[in-house]
Design a protein that fits this description.
The mean pLDDT is 94. By secondary structure, this protein is an all-alpha fold. Helix 1 packs antiparallel against helix 2. It contains two helices and no strands. The protein is elongated, with a radius of gyration of 12 Å.
Amino acid sequence: MSTSHLSALKSRHADLDEKIANEERRPCPDAGMLAQMKKQKLKIKEEMLAIA
């Protein structure tokens, strides 16, 4: 894999991290959406580890 792919994954991971943090700060966070975003974030992290 190329370093640009790894950079894109890191960017998506950071973006999801920010979205999760924003959702958790809301008065009534959407638990389903949080779970989905956390799963996506974990998949991205696993893919980054596989590449590195």
